[in-house]
Amino acid sequence: MDVxxxxxxxxxxxxxxxxxxxxxxxxxxxxFADLGYAMVDHHRALRQGTPEVIFGLGKTPEQIVGIAQxxxxxxxxxxxxxxxxxxxxxxxxxLSLLRYHELARTATWEQAPIEPLGKLxxxxxxxxxxxxxVAEECAETLRLLGIRIERLYDVGxxxxxxxxxxxxxxxxxxLAIVVAGMEGALPSVVGGLVAIPVIAVPxxxxxxxAFGGVTALACMLTSCASGVTVCNINNGFGAAFAAARILRMxxx
Length: 252
Known about the structure:
Layout: H1 3-15, H2 20-27, E1 32-34, E2 39-41, H3 44-48, E3 54-55, H4 61-73, E4 78-81, H5 85-94, E5 99-101, E6 106-109, E7 122-126, H6 132-144, E8 149-152, H7 161-164, E9 176-180, H8 186-193, E10 198-202, H9 214-221, E11 229-230, H10 236-250
Parallel strand pairs: 3-4, 7-8, 7-9, 9-10, 10-11
Antiparallel strand pairs: 1-2, 4-6, 5-6
Protein name: PurE domain-containing protein
GO biological process, one term: 'de novo' IMP biosynthetic process
Pfam family, one: AIRC
């Protein structure tokens, strides 16, 4: 249940369209539903503005389906992250309304209107083609959060002219999410060019000394561009939610 649905319910009771008993039955879903293997947080949309998100890694297809059905039962949109293609086959067979995005490894079940968040889009900047899966996880999450996106892909520092050629893009966005592997230098470059917030996402892309993204993470954490915010390795989802928190406060 989100703020809009709660308001509709209370207004229904006030005008007599909804009986007190009907309202009480709907409110019994709050704050959570105990499925035995999961405690589905129906109160999260009221607290944070968005429903609980299902992290698919480590869960069985049956568990994912059960949680998704419980979220959808109350009219909420469903987002599943880190859903590998093999597991997605079983999940989408059980949930015919689920839409799978293989590159992003996400699945969505949209049944409620998505309220736009922010007046300006977010720049989603990606260093290399190999980083795109992390960027697309971010993109799908941003979309479900109601945030418009301007993609700027394959503009890493090995060919910095590609980024500089599109520099004007940053004059028309609210913030930038910058996804990069290897040495992770791109967020520092963007952070030195713009005044808007920059959220950096290191990826595990790179050769041996990249240490599965640790080198990029350390580089971003020690960025010489002041104020760059850094998320965990491959965490495009987390970057999207960080952007949403900023936009809710600034309403930009």
